[in-house]
Amino acid sequence: MKAISIKSEITGTVCSIIATVGQQVEEGDTILLIESMKMEIPAQAPCAGTITEILAQEGDLINEDDAIATIEAP
User: Fold this and answer.
1) What is the pTM of this model?
2) DSSP state letter for 9
3) Looking at 1-74, which runs of residues are DSSP E strands?
4) What pLDDT does 1 receive?
């Protein structure tokens, strides 16, 4: 298994965390929502695996390329 860092593709504010640590996800599943310019943009799992860390909290301001979660892929 290898750990993959999920990074934000945009700058914005974390408005909702969807996934939880230990949750199994599939490629494309929404991990959290980022609000930017009054739009909610999903941060998605790049592959199937298990969420091992959520590095952001609701209300956090994040920048493009900030690590927001870690997924362990088979």
Assistant:
1) 0.89
2) S
3) 2-7, 12-17, 24-25, 30-36, 39-44, 49-54, 61-62, 67-73
4) 80
Alpha-carbon dihedral sign for residues 6, 9, 10, 14: negative
CA–CA separation, 41 and 15 (whole Å):
10
- Cβ-count burial 18-34 (b if 16+ within 10 Å, e if not): ebeeebebeeebbbbbb
- CB contact at 8 A, 68 and 31: yes
Counting Cβ atoms within 10 Å, is residue 61 exposed (0-12), middle (13-18) or buried (19+)?
Answer: exposed
- List the domain boundaries for the chain: 2-73
Q: Find out if CATH 3.40.140.10 is the number for domain 2-73.
A: no
Mean predicted confidence (pLDDT) in 40-59: 97
The answer to whether the CB of 43 falls within 8 A of the CB of 67 is no
